[in-house]
Amino acid sequence: MKYIPILELPVLIIMVIIRSAMLSRRGIKAIVFGVTDKSDFIMLPVILCFFYAILSVFFALPFPAVLTKLFFEINILNIFAIVTCTVSLIWFGITLKTFGKSFRVGIDKNTNGNLITNGTFSISRNPIYISFLAFFTGIFTAYPNIVTLIFLLLLAMTVHRQILREEVFLKIHYGKQYDEYYGKVRRYL
Questions:
Q1: pLDDT tens sequence across 132-164
Q2: Does an H or E element contain 110, and which?
Q3: Which of 24, 63, 140, 181 sits at 20 to 30 Å (Cα–Cα) from 172?
């Protein structure tokens, strides 16, 4: 049961890959990460370190044990972690469906789609990011150690930075329509 949250991680990655491939078949480039701002790539070493740290626990790869040593072990938190990760994957899937062909990883200045304000976007202006933050909160809850804590904190800072950048873009791109949406729906929840 302890391994379920980490086994859900590939599901999250596969969902992004499948959606990107589906859009690619329609001639839409969904992965535009780093195109608008090269500083997006600062997060890549952190992501790679996180994945390596997780893999090192499961496959006995060389990694400083002090970084993956659990702060505490409380069995009920594993159930919370499983529920959190599962619900966030469902939320992510619903959001991908709502996004339709507008889904992008990064800011796409060439987009010509409509502003999405229905479905999960009527609850939060950033439902994809909510699902990521919830998912990795679940991962931290299942594996409370230095690596997952640092990753979660850096992810939260990176997500907030990206949201602020996207808000500027959306205001310029959609104007008054975005202003009205901004006034009705919260940034997070």
A1: 999 999 999 999 999 899 999 988 998 999 899
A2: none
A3: 24
**Could you tell me if 40 and 33 are in contact, meaning their C-beta atoms sit under 8 angstroms apart?**
yes
d(C-alpha 18, C-alpha 45), whole Å: 24
Instruction: Give the whole-angstrom CA distance, residue 154 versus residue 166.
Output: 18
Residue 132 Cα distances to 73, 87, 170, 175, 185, angstroms: 23, 11, 21, 27, 19
0.85 cut: is pTM over it? Answer: yes
Backbone angles phi, psi at 105, to 5 degrees: -105, 100
| Domains observed in the chain | 4-184 (1.20.120)
User: What is the residue type of 147?
Assistant: V
Query: Is the separation of the CB atoms in 18 and 96 below 8 Å?
Result: no
Do the Cβ atoms of 6 and 84 come closer than 8 Å?
Answer: no
What is the three-class DSSP state of 81? Answer: helix
Q: Give residue-wise pLDDT tens across range 61-105.
A: 888 889 888 999 898 999 999 999 999 999 999 999 998 888 888
Rounded Cα distance between 36 and 103, Å, is 16
First to last CA, the chain: 29
